[in-house]
Amino acid sequence: MPALSAITVDVHLRDDDMRAALEHDVRDGLCRRPKAIPPTWFYDEEGSRLFEEITKLPEYYPTRTERALLEAHAVEIASLAGADTLVELGAGSCEKTRILLDAMKELGTLRRYVPFDVSAEFLEDAAASLASEYDGLHIHAVIGDFLRHLDRIPTTGTRLVAFLGGTIGNLVPTQRARFFQALRATLAPGDHALVGADLVKDPRRIVAAYDDSAGVTAEFNRNVLRVMNRSLDANFVPEHFAHVAQWNEHAQWIEMRLRAIGSQRVHVEALDMTVEFDAGEELLTEISAKFTPEGLAAELDDARFSVENQWGAEDGEFLLTLASRR
Q1: Which of 298, 297, 294, 291 is nearest to 318 (CA)?
Q2: How confident is the model at residue 227, as a pLDDT?
């Protein structure tokens, strides 16, 4: 008879924490020049649905190219890492997780899986699904913010910490440096980190991935306004903001913005604040940095990681990097 999978859930981020963070980010971001709000707030239920739709679009190459790399190299990655525990930061629906779990299972090392995300609902659903698929797998879900709670990751076993999806690109260089330092501090000797990063390429290809012809990314971008309307009783009119995706050559990242169509006055009732937008004024909603293999290796080296291998550099599309602390 198959062994039943055990599920443990640690909660370090509660609804009131999320509410306080949203209020802070909106108050701070709408008072800035230029205005900005973190991409965290795209992802309510509708935002998550739209992003899943984006990953299936012909223009959006990152998800399928990363998946192809994982399918081609997962067994090699798992063998080099020698881990019995897979930790996944920003686990979401855990779709790509199965590729690494299957590789570890094939090698006979798989013991536990630690999905880490801000969304309790996503994690609980994914954990239940995986528990039914992997007999005897111990699932230890952690609900938290990877910029604040890395030190709460369970330390049991030898760990492979995966940070996939190109999410590292949503952090500016100073944030990346702090993140890598915090990640290194959580790793024990023998643990490894696996980072998925999008590579610098023809800017036209990058821009198309963030400004698709079907307009799905535009709706995803405007969804942050709907989140503020619903959660903070704001009165944004999303249709009065145009989706903008621009390549920043100097910074080597794509920027997503919402540009006011005409001058506007927005009231955020929950914060008792009124915000003016001039015609053409933009709200920065996301950056997504692109890397070179050498550049990412240098950032990891600065944080005292040793790069053990990289996959995908020859294709110039997407990169998986396996590193350990030194």
Answers
A1: 291
A2: 96
- Spatial CA neighbour of 165 closest among 261, 48, 246: 48
Question: Are residues 321 and 296 in contact, defined by beta-carbon separation less than 8 angstroms?
Answer: yes
Q: What is the pTM of this model?
A: 0.94
Q: Which two tokens stand for residue 221?
A: 């971008």
Q: Which structure tokens are listed for 325?
A: 């602390």
Amino acid at 234: A
Q: From the CA atom positions of the chain, what is the Rg in Å?
A: 20
Which residues, listed in sequence order, are joined to residue 248 by a DSSP beta bridge?
253
Number of residues in the chain? 326
19-50: buried (b, 16+ CB within 10 Å) or exposed (e) per residue?
eebbeebbbebbeeeebbbbbbbbbbeebbeb
Q: What is the pLDDT of residue 1?
A: 42
Sequence-distant (≥ 6) Cβ neighbours of residue 119 within 8 angstroms: 43, 48, 92, 143
pLDDT of residue 167: 94
* pLDDT single digits (tens) 199-220: 999 999 999 999 999 999 999 9
State which residues of the chain have pLDDT below 70.
1-5, 91-94
Give the pair of three-digit tokens for residue 225.
């306004």
| Number of structural domains found in the chain | 1
Place of tokens 């944080």: 303
Question: What is the predicted pLDDT for the residue at 126?
Answer: 78
Q: In this predicted structure, what is the pLDDT of residue 148?
A: 87
Distance CA 296, CA 249 (A): 17
Helix boundaries (H) for 36-119? 45-54, 62-81, 97-107
CATH of the domain at 36: 3.40.50.150
Domain range for 287: 1-326
**139-171: string of b/e by CB count within 10 Å (b at 16+)?**
bbbbbbbbeebbebbbeebbbbbbbbbbbbbbb
Q: Which residues contact 73 (CB under 8 A, 6 or more apart)?
A: 311, 320
Neighbours of 270 (CB within 10 A): 15
